[in-house]
Design goal:
The complex is a heterodimer of chains A (about 375) and B (about 550).
Chain A lengths: L1 H9 L2 H23 L10 H27 L6 H20 L12 H5 L15 H25 L4 H20 L11 E2 L3 E2 L2 E2 L3 H27 L1 H11 L1 H6 L4 H27 L1 E2 L6 H14 L5 H20 L1 H18 L3 H9 L17
Antiparallel strand pairs in A: 1-4, 2-3
Helix pairs in contact in A: 2-8, 3-8, 3-11, 3-12, 3-13, 4-6, 4-11, 6-11, 8-9, 8-11, 9-11, 12-13, 12-15, 13-14, 13-15
Chain B lengths: L1 H21 L5 H13 L3 H14 L4 H9 L3 E4 L4 E5 L5 E3 L15 E2 L4 H16 L4 H14 L5 H10 L3 H17 L5 H14 L2 H13 L2 H50 L7 H22 L7 H23 L8 H23 L15 E4 L2 E4 H23 L1 H11 L1 H6 L4 H23 L11 H14 L4 H22 L1 H18 L15
Antiparallel strand pairs in B: 1-2, 1-4, 2-3, 5-6
The chains are: A mainly alpha (about 375), B mainly alpha (about 550).
Chain lengths: ~375, ~550
């Protein structure tokens, strides 16, 4: 019964609910949209599908951040950079799919390159006409950056706030770099005006539904991978690093190796989230690198519950729903509400919403994984 | 040969002008008689002569006459040998008497024609007229103008007025102009050209460099060698000055960074609170300045020049009080959880931004500069803006005061004690809660004072603080957390390095280079330039 053991390891009670709900959404939403007539309650309007699809990508980003922050104690304030890099990889593929349908009708070059008077496709763009290549790049680009960054930072034992600040500097530097037209990624305007993905119209409802389901499935996959990591022996060491880094090192574990692996895997997950995000919102620009985006992702995680994985995803969904509702209904009050939310959550609910729910029923669900202890003084 | 005669003619013309200048006076009517005759001749050489005669006459109408000639409003009657000039409103004046004149048939009058040679003479003559203006500032401006154009035709006039000039500044400017003309005239004697080149080299600005380079390209022999040597030397000096200028800009940027970061060096560096609302404290300080100025403008308009001086302590009090309130209500629950203070204070920064936006609107607010901070002055080859200079001074004063507070007062002693070992300090009878609150208030108050200074160089808007928060953190981290000297060195280093990089690779790439540098630097020295040693490190 290895299968059941595996399932039990990967799915605790929260996880079962989480994965179950996502699976249901991934299957039912497109199905009902096909079956139920437009306008009925069961038929989700296309803009809602796009909206929730977007949130699911954010949830995956939050999940990836929770993996490094909640389980390894690395507070990355630059995870938005990995998200954006994945997004750019997908955006470049979508740009190449436009072909000669651009404003300048140039079959070889995207519009902005024609506009900048470039004669040939830069090396960085080679291969992006192929979807598999772009998909691999969406994983590799953030992964390599995270690996290189972690290689330097973790081996030099940069920790705590110093690490947070330099991850922020990293995403800020990337934002400035991508703003430059010379970089060849569309500069200030970024990449937009997409037409097709794998031959399907990105605007079409069916494509949107497919992307929605894919996002939900990607989130499930991300959750299972993250659970697989944190419940393994490897994960136990990672959690040990979070709780007592020096002690773990003295016990003979190579702390930096564990950190680099977790950080890289997490960055790749963020990259996938970005790659799924871009076709659903139809644009990617350097604003995605803005440090504030990465901080917001940290907020999602802490609202939902740091070190709970499902909680991080839940936090992303809830905060973004609240954001959408507030900015529509009470635009002036949104920042007040968001700000207050951060303060209340951090001061009164240090374990987030999921932590609060779990602490209400302590007897029925002994936590498999200890939630993060209070940070070392 | 033709050129040489041309050259000689100017010298002789200069001589006449010099002579007439010395004995100019009531006898100008005769000179004007000649001018009338020459203008009426309707020949270019005679017209040139007439222009010289007009200048030499010293007549009060001379500028108006030349102005009229330049604008094709100098008219003559070929039959009666009379010349008239009109003003912009077509009023006709007799050239000889300068009185208003009426002509029966204005259509019979002919215009005095111009060609390029005449125009050159005319321009030089007009320049010479201003060279003789009673106002030294005008003479100075004219001399500079001639220096820039180094028009050979102006030489005689320069020579003429140089001898009579009393003001040493104007005299120097005239000599420079003379040197510029002689050095760039190919047929001047080599000896005078070499002398002139020396003078240009001594002047050593961008214009001289251009002229010297031009001479080096066109001249031969000794002059060429001297000019290229001089051009190279001026070039080197200019490059040096431009570096010095960039260093000044860097100091200015560094002092802004220092101001923005120094409050954070207390709250983050000393107390370990990652205060994301720090930028908003700066912003509140800037808005305090705005409100102070409005209040003064409304009730005590006479004190407008002192508004900044009043705003500095006010901003300290306002933001210090806000800081203490924040510490008491939020941050004290989060000590020892640095990453969570980050989130809470980030939430706080959103609230403060939105509060200011609701109160004052989202638009930029106008904060005016007092008189003593406006304008700029030259220092050697530097252009120094007073406002920037004052900000450098202000940043250093704030830094020194803060050091004094921390090093020389009992409060500072307590702050340091609590920072180093909270429990031990508490055992020794220090009220750590009170010290925490006051230290946070101090850091916030300093951020507010920074806001007063930054209101002078940045837009006062709800987003003001956001643009400084990342830079501030980088400065503190680069300098080494918990070390004010580190903050000072880091701010100035980053500022100067940034401004020295900018001309080489552009502003954005320069900024990226700095960020990458800091990221790499932190790898090498994970605890900044000046790391704390001992047990505090692991705290």
């Amino acid at each position: 019964m290895i299968g059941t053991e595996m399932t039990q390891r990967l799915l605790d009670r929260n996880g079962l609910v989480f994965v179950g709900l996502l699976l249901a959404a991934a299957i039912l939403v497109p199905l009902l949209a096909l079956v139920a007539p437009a306008g009925s309650l069961l038929h989700m309007p296309p803009y809602v599908v796009a909206l929730i699809g977007k949130y699911l990508c954010f949830a995956l980003l939050a999940l990836s951040l929770d993996l490094v922050w909640g389980y390894c104690g690395i507070l990355s304030l630059g995870h938005g950079a990995f998200f954006a890099l994945g997004g750019y990889a997908m955006g470049m593929y979508l740009m190449r799919q436009i072909g000669s349908r651009g404003v300048y009708a140039n079959p070889d070059l995207p519009d902005f390159m024609v506009f900048l008077n470039w004669k040939s496709l830069p090396l960085t763009w080679w291969g992006f006409s192929s979807f598999p290549y772009a998909a691999v790049m969406a994983l590799l680009a953030p992964g390599l950056l995270a690996f290189a960054f972690g290689w330097f930072a973790f081996r030099s034992r940069v920790t705590g706030v110093y690490l947070s600040i330099i991850t922020q500097a990293m995403t800020y530097a990337l934002q400035l770099a991508f703003f430059r037209n010379d970089m060849g990624f569309g500069g200030n305007n970024g990449l937009t005006d997409f037409k097709d993905i794998l031959g399907f119209n990105v605007q079409a409802e069916s494509t949107r539904l497919a992307l929605f389901s894919l996002s939900a499935l990607a989130l499930i996959a991300g959750y299972l991978i993250a659970r697989g990591i944190v419940t393994s022996k490897f994960g136990k060491v990672v959690i040990a690093i979070r709780d007592a880094e020096s002690r773990t090192r003295f016990l003979g574990y190579r702390v930096e190796t564990y950190k680099i692996v977790v950080f890289t895997v997490s960055a790749m997950m963020a990259g996938v989230a970005g790659a799924l995000y871009v076709p659903q919102v139809g644009i990617i620009n350097p604003g995605e690198f803005a440090p504030i985006n990465s901080i917001e992702a940290v907020i999602w995680v802490s609202v939902g519950g740091r070190g709970t994985l499902a909680g991080a995803a839940l936090g992303a969904l809830l905060v973004n729903f609240a954001k959408t509702w507030f900015t529509d209904a009470l635009p002036e009050l949104w920042l007040f509400a968001l700000g207050l939310l951060f303060i209340v959550v951090t001061v009164f609910m240090p374990k987030g919403i999921l932590g609060l729910l779990d602490s209400m029923k302590p007897l029925r669900s002994p936590p498999v994984i200890a939630s993060p202890t209070e940070a070392k003084q | 040969m033709k050129k040489i005669t041309h050259w000689r003619r100017h010298w002789s013309r200069a001589l006449t002008i010099m002579l007439t200048l010395c004995c100019a006076g009531p006898a100008f009517a005769d000179a004007l008689d000649d001018a009338v005759a020459h203008f009426s001749a309707d020949k270019f050489p005679q017209t040139q002569q007439a222009i010289d005669e007009i200048v030499a006459s010293g007549a009060p109408t001379a500028p108006a006459i030349l102005e009229a000639l330049a604008n094709n409003r100098l008219l003559f009657d070929p039959d009666e040998q009379k010349v008239y000039f009109s003003d912009e409103n077509d009023n006709l004046y007799d050239l000889r008497t300068g009185e208003k004149a009426t002509v029966e048939s204005p259509d019979d009058l002919k215009k005095v024609r111009l060609n390029n040679a005449v125009r050159g003479t005319l321009q030089a003559a007009q320049g010479a007229m201003t060279l003789m203006a009673p106002d030294p500032a005008k003479r100075m401006a004219s001399a500079r103008e001639i220096f820039k154009s180094h028009e050979p035709l102006a030489l005689p006039q320069i020579e003429a007025v140089l001898a009579a000039e009393k003001s040493p500044d104007v005299k120097a400017a005239l000599s420079d102009a003379r040197a510029a003309i002689i050095a760039t005239t190919p047929d001047a004697p080599d000896a005078s050209r070499l002398e002139a080149i020396d003078r240009l080299k001594a002047r050593g600005d961008q214009d001289s460099q251009g002229m010297l380079a031009g001479i080096a390209a066109s001249a031969q022999g000794q002059v060429k060698a001297a000019a290229s040597a001089a051009a190279a030397s001026v070039q080197a000096r200019l490059a040096l000055w431009s570096n010095v200028q960039n260093i000044f800009y860097g100091l200015s940027l560094g002092s802004v960074l220092l101001l923005a970061a120094i409050g954070l060096a207390i709250t983050f560096g000393v107390m370990g609170v990652i205060n994301m609302a720090h930028g908003e404290m700066v912003m509140l300080g800037a808005y305090t300045t705005f409100v102070t100025q409005q209040a003064i403008a409304a009730w005590r308009p006479g004190m407008a020049d002192y508004s900044l001086l009043i705003a500095v302590p006010l901003a300290f009090i306002v933001t210090g009080a806000v800081g203490i309130a924040i510490e008491r209500s939020i941050i004290r629950f989060l000590y020892g959880r640095p990453l969570e203070t980050l989130l809470a204070t980030f939430g706080l920064s959103l609230i403060l931004q939105q509060a200011v936006r609701t109160l004052f609107g989202a638009n930029n607010r106008q904060v005016s500069a007092p008189a003593f901070m406006a304008g700029s002055f030259d220092f050697g080859g530097l252009a120094i803006t007073s406002g920037r200079l004052w900000i450098i001074v202000f940043a250093l004063v704030v830094f020194i005061l803060l050091q004094l507070v921390l090093r020389a007062t009992s409060f500072g002693l307590r702050v340091r004690a609590v920072t180093q070992n909270r429990r031990m300090a508490s055992s020794m009878g220090i009220d750590t809660n009170r010290i925490d609150a006051l230290a946070f208030g101090l850091g916030s108050g300093i951020a507010g004072m920074a806001g007063v200074a930054l209101s002078q160089i940045d837009n006062v808007s709800p987003n003001l603080g956001q643009s400084y928060i990342i830079d501030s953190f980088l400065v503190v981290v680069f300098g080494g957390v918990g070390n004010l000297w580190g903050t000072l060195v880091a701010a100035l280093t980053l500022g100067i390095a940034n401004k020295l990089l900018e001309p080489l690779i552009g502003a954005v790439l320069g900024k990226i280079a700095m960020l990458v540098f800091i990221i790499l630097f932190i790898q090498k020295r994970p605890r900044g330039l000046f790391a704390l040693k001992g047990r505090a490190v692991e705290a």
